[in-house]
Each structure stands twice: as C-alpha cells, then as structure tokens.
C-alpha cells in the first residue's frame, strides 16, 4: 500500500511538471483564452512546487472560503496562466479578486460574464458585485437583480423643448374617431386608481400619466382613443355650467369688437358660468385686469370655481401660474355705482337680459372712443337695447349687429363598403362600344388588383366627398357693437 501511494504521488508531481513545461513553451502563442471544459483537481493545486503559483493559490483559497461556493473551472485555470496569456476580461477579474482579498471585503452577489466559444455555447464567469455599473460591457447581464429601465428619463428625453408630460390633475380630452369623424369626446382629470370609461372600453388613468399628450391608447376592447390636453375652447364647452355660456365663436368676436389687448382693464357684467371671464383674462394678460360682476350668488360661485379649476390645470401643464387678474363681485350694476367709483375701463362686455338698464351706470366709466359689446340671445332684446339708448340719449353709436354662424363641412376620401378607396375613372371617348366594355372590364380588374396590393393609392387618384355636415350649430346670440363718442 505504501508503494502504491508513493507511485501515485510521483505520477502527480510528473503530471504537474509537464503542465508547467507546456505553459512555458506556449507562452508566446497564447493570446486569447477559450472557455472550454477544462478540469483541474484541487489536490493538484495544493501540491504545487512553484512558490509564485502557491502564493496565488493561497489568495484564491482565501477568496473561495469567503465566497462559500465552489470555483468554476475557468476561475481555477485562470490562476495558473501567466498574465500576458489572459484576456482583458480575465485580467479585470483577477485584479478585482486581489483588491477584494487585500481589503477583506465580503462578496455577497455576482453577475455573470458571458464569453463566446467556438461551438457557440457559453459558460459563466462570476464577477464581484463591486464592479462599477458603467464599466459593464454589452454582454453582461444581472443574474440576481432585475434591471428595470428608468422610464422617467426616457419619456422626458422624448419630449420637445417646452413640452411636458401628462401629470395627475390636469384637464385632458379623450376622443374616439370612426371613419374620420368624432364619435366620442369627453373631458376628464386623471386621478390615481381611476378609469376612463366609455362605450368602447376603459383606460386606466395610471397608464395615461407620464406620457406625452396627443397619443392613441387602446381601451380594454382594443379600440384606439386619442388623449390630448384640453384647450380653453374645449374647457369652456365641456365645463360645468350654471346658465348658458358665451360660445367661443361669439366670445372671440366680441374680443375683436372691443379690441382688447394686454394691459387693458375690462368690465364684465354677467359672469354666468365664467366663459367670457376666462377669455378676457387671457386677452388682458398679467398686466391687465377684469372686473366681473354677477347679481346671482350661485352663478358667481360657479364662475369662480370654473376659473379656479382652469388656473390649476394650467399651472400643472405649463409649470407656471395663470394670471390671477379677474376680480369677481356679487352686485347689481344698476345700484352699484360705488363699486365703479374712480375707475375707468378700456372696454365693457355685457351679457344681461336687460342691458339697457345698466348702461347709464357703466357708460360714464368707459373711455371715449372705446367699445361696449353686448351679447343678446333674442332679437327682441336688441330692439329694447336700441330703444333704451334712444330714450336715454346716451352717447353711443350702434356700429353693427351681427350673428356668427359656423358651418361645418364633411370632406373625406370616398370609400367603398368594403373599406377600400374609390378610384377616379377617366372618360373613354371611343366609338366602338365593344372595345369600350372590354376596356372597362380590364380597368375594373386592374383597379381591384391595385387596391388589393396597395391600400393607399397615389396622389390625386381618389375622389373626395365634400358636403355640409348633417349636424350644424344653429343660432346662439346677436352681438351688438356700441361705441362711445364725446358729446
């Protein structure tokens, strides 16, 4: 038995000596390290006679004890090779292991390093968790930690300068289009844990927040819904109302009549639901001001809430405050001369049932040459207004009485029942009717083949439908323009 042990020990030393000779002779030829299946016995490493290799093996054993896991064949054989025969990745691993051994740090996790073999398979090499994230190569992947991309940075970088992402609390518009026409439109405010419901499915508000405006999102039924920010026109049309509002088409015309610019001071009588107050607030800007007077408390309360709600949404959207330039008062202008004492106005907007009753109170505070625009629903009110001006002999000239009609048109490419585009057909001026019929058949077949191959015909090849929309906005109001003159 002792003789057999001696022979086994001698064979082990001879085998180790042959390995060192082969490493020395091939030192100049080895430039890359292939991660093939190389196996080395731990006992052979312990019986090494080389002092340099023994020192390295001692440090590797200490590292192995701290890791409390077996080393892979790649890690074991890398400790036996000279430095100039190692790949850069293995050199980096060796330096990190030495630093860890010197500093006495405890390695708790690892990331796998993938190296490509000639056969196309890969082996894993454990690296320390102290590796900087910025130095990880493209073929590194995390084995113990889930890598989650920073969506906030990617979404922020996708926006244009001056744009911002959707946040909770701002006013949005959801629209569903069918055959080029709006079938569904709703204004809403995204909130955490809520849904946008419609007849075409629902969308979670949490999925909307953080995205740029103007995107199509699919509902639970798979239909696309356009999500965009609400404009002032949208807000005025879809906000909660107390009385009827001044429609945007009429409000903008009144602003043109009064020639309201930034810095002006405007008097508004009849706050209503706050629509005209918002348009005036934007027109006068931060340098101007609007005095809005309402006789009914419930209407005034609604106007103030709508005004405040729009200002809040604007600050979330633009990250700046909407000008707080509207002063709301609950009073009757017929008897509120003290409210206007010592004040002058560049323009006056009246939305009252009987505006001729307040003209004697407000006209003295209107600048000479300025305009008083009156919003009236019925033509009989227009007659009463003009009759009141005549009887009271007020210094006002009636320049015009208008209404603002808007006629919507439907202009869309013509489609067949199967959804394909129609095509233009040029007239055939031939006398031979038989040849004409054959040509038409060939043309129809060609058209069908072209439409089947291409869903978007060339420019000018599709006829269009152009007609007024069946649903039109009818009469809303008469606008009277009164200009003050000096007597």
Could you characterize what this model shows?
- InterPro entries: SAM-dependent_MTases_sf (IPR029063), TR61B_FKBP-like (IPR054151), TRM61_C (IPR049470), tRNA_MeTrfase_Gcd14 (IPR014816).
- Pfam families: GCD14, TR61B_FKBP-like.
- The chain is α+β, with helices and mostly antiparallel strands and 487 residues long.
- Among the domains are: 165-230, Vcp-like ATPase, Chain A, domain 2; 237-403, 3-Layer(aba) Sandwich (Rossmann fold), CATH 3.40.50.
- The protein is 35% helix and 22% strand.
- The protein contains 14 helices and 18 strands.
- It has a seven-stranded mixed β-sheet. Strands 5-4-9-8 form a four-stranded antiparallel β-sheet, covered by helices on one side. A three-stranded antiparallel β-sheet has the order 2-1-3, with helices on one face.
- Helix 11 (297-318) links the parallel strand 11 (289-294) and strand 12.
- The longest helix has 24 residues, at 2-25.
- It is flat and about 125 Å long.
- Mean pLDDT is 76; it is low at 1-8, 26-57, 63-68 and 104-157.
Write the SSE topology.
Elements: H1 2-25, H2 42-46, H3 51-67, H4 73-78, H5 88-103, E1 110-116, E2 122-128, E3 140-141, H6 151-158, E4 172-178, E5 181-188, E6 195-198, E7 201-204, H7 205-208, E8 215-218, E9 224-229, H8 232-238, H9 248-258, E10 265-269, H10 275-284, E11 289-294, H11 297-318, E12 326-330, E13 345-350, H12 359-362, E14 366-376, H13 379-392, E15 396-402, E16 409-413, H14 433-453, E17 464-468, E18 478-484
Parallel strand pairs: 10-11, 10-13, 11-12, 13-14
Antiparallel strand pairs: 1-2, 1-3, 4-5, 4-9, 6-7, 8-9, 14-18, 15-18, 16-17
Helix pairs in contact: 3-5, 9-10
């Amino acid at each position: 038995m002792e003789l057999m042990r001696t022979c086994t020990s001698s064979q082990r030393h001879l085998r180790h000596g042959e390995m060192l000779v082969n490493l020395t002779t091939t030192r100049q030829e080895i430039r890359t390290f292939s991660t093939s299946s190389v196996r080395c016995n731990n006992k052979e490493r312990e019986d090494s006679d080389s002092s340099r290799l023994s020192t390295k093996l001692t440090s590797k054993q200490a590292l192995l004890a701290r890791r409390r896991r077996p080393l892979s064949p790649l890690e074991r054989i890398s400790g036996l090779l000279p430095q100039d025969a190692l790949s850069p990745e293995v050199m980096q691993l060796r330096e990190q292991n030495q630093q860890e051994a010197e500093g006495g740090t405890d390695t708790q996790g690892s990331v796998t390093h993938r190296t490509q073999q000639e056969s196309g398979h890969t082996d894993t090499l454990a690296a320390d968790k102290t590796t900087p994230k910025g130095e990880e190569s493209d073929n590194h992947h995390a084995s113990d930690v889930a890598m989650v991309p920073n969506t906030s940075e990617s979404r922020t970088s996708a926006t244009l300068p001056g744009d911002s992402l959707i946040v909770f609390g701002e006013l949005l518009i959801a629209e569903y289009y069918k055959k080029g026409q709006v079938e569904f439109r709703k204004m809403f405010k995204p909130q955490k844990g809520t849904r946008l419901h419609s007849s075409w499915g629902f969308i979670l508000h949490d999925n909307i927040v953080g995205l740029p405006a103007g995107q199509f999102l699919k509902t639970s039924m798979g239909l696309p819904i356009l999500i965009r920010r609400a404009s002032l026109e949208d807000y005025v049309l879809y906000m909660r109302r107390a009385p009827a509002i001044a429609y945007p088409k009429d409000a903008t015309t009144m602003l043109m009549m009064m020639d309201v610019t930034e810095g002006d001071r405007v008097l508004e009588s009849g706050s209503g639901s706050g629509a005209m107050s918002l348009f005036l607030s934007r027109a006068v800007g931060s340098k101007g001001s609007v005095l809005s007077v309402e006789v009914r408390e419930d209407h005034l309360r609604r106007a103030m809430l709508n005004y405040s709600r729009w200002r809040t949404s604007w600050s979330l959207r633009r990250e700046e405050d909407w000008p707080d330039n509207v002063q709301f008062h609950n009073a009757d202008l017929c008897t509120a001369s003290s409210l206007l004492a010592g004040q002058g106005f560049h323009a006056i907007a009246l939305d009252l049932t009987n505006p001729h009753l307040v003209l004697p109170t407000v006209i003295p505070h209107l600048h000479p040459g300025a305009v008083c625009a009156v919003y009236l629903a019925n033509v009989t009110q227009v007659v009463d207004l003009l009759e009141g001006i005549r009887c009271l002999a007020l210094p006002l000239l009636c320049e015009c009485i208008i209404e603002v009609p808007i006629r919507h048109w439907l202009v869309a490419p013509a489609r067949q029942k199967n959804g394909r585009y129609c095509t233009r057909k040029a007239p055939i001026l031939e006398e031979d009717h038989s040849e004409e019929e054959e040509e038409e058949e060939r043309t129809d077949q060609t058209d069908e083949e072209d439409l089947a191959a291409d869903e978007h015909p060339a420019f000018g090849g599709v006829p269009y439908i152009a007609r007024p929309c069946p649903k039109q906005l009818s009469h809303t109001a008469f606008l009277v323009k009164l200009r003050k003159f000096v007597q």
